Amino acid sequence: MSISTHVLDTERGEPARGVRVELYRGDDLLAARETDEDGRIADLAGDEAVPDVYRLVFHPRSPFFRRVEVEVELGPGHYHVPLLLAPYSCALYRGS
Fold first, then answer.
1. Alpha-carbon distance 48 to 39, whole Å?
2. Which of 27, 28, 45, 71 is the most buried (most CB within 10 A)?
3. How far apart are CA 93 and CA 82, in angstroms?
4. Which ranges of 1-96 does DSSP label H, i.e. alpha helix?
5. Cβ proximity of 19 and 62 under 8 Å
6. Does domain 2-92 have CATH number 2.60.40.180?
7. Any idea what DSSP says for residue 57?
8. Domain spans of the chain, in order of start
9. How far apart are CA 85 and CA 30, in angstroms?
10. Considering the entire predicted model, what is its pTM?
């Protein structure tokens, strides 16, 4: 299985570069990476991914949000979890 993400700055209409994203399973930190020039992290989990409950913690540069956190239950396959970010709102969804 694999987990990817994409952070978009909807205020500027561009990818959010350099956003730190952490991946946890329980209290165990599995990965900590930063989004690339396109706002993406292609493979956040690496070889650590197995079906389970995960927590993604985003640390955006924002005047309001210090972090955005979501807990998801993932099975076999590929999961893409994008974050749309504006100064005072955000949305997470399961992408493709």
1. 22
2. 45
3. 6
4. none
5. no
6. yes
7. E
8. 2-92
9. 24
10. 0.94
